[in-house]
Sequence to fold (171 residues):
Amino acid sequence: MAKEGNVLLGILAIILGILVIIFPLISVFTVSLIAGIGILFLGIWLLIQSFGVWASNKGVSISYLILGILAIIVGIGLFGNVLAFSFLVSLALYIAGFFLLISGFLSLFSKEGTAGKGSGVLGIILGILYMILAAYAWNPIYLAFLIGIWLIIDGIALFFVNPMEVAEAQN
Fold:
């Protein structure tokens, strides 16, 4: 069974998931604000890095400068823009779904045995599922429902996960 901290995080995730579903546009707007601010700060940090590296490596400095300017533009563009945020989330899901689908087909036809074929079929199914979710993520209301459902499922899972067992299983 999970520890007390996980139970508290699980309850908070469930409450947040319900709030996101109840107030979908406000929730997506808030997430787009947070994402915009985060990317804006990343851009500022990259700009500062470009000036700090100038003396030692001009190529890296110019790369930091270009990435910083792009990040600032994207951060300002995302700042409170629900449609831009929905577009980027949907695009990311399409790309992930495409890669899952292709890797699933490659695994299905290249691996031997039941486990190899099973992982290929699972990759294909997940790729199709990602693409279906991407089609719904274009709409900010559906995106909020997807985020809310994910938070609720994650909150419920936190009731049953012991972080010590996960750490031991990874070692």
Q: What stands out?
A: The chain has one domain: 4-160. The chain has a mean pLDDT of 87. Residues 4-160 form one domain.
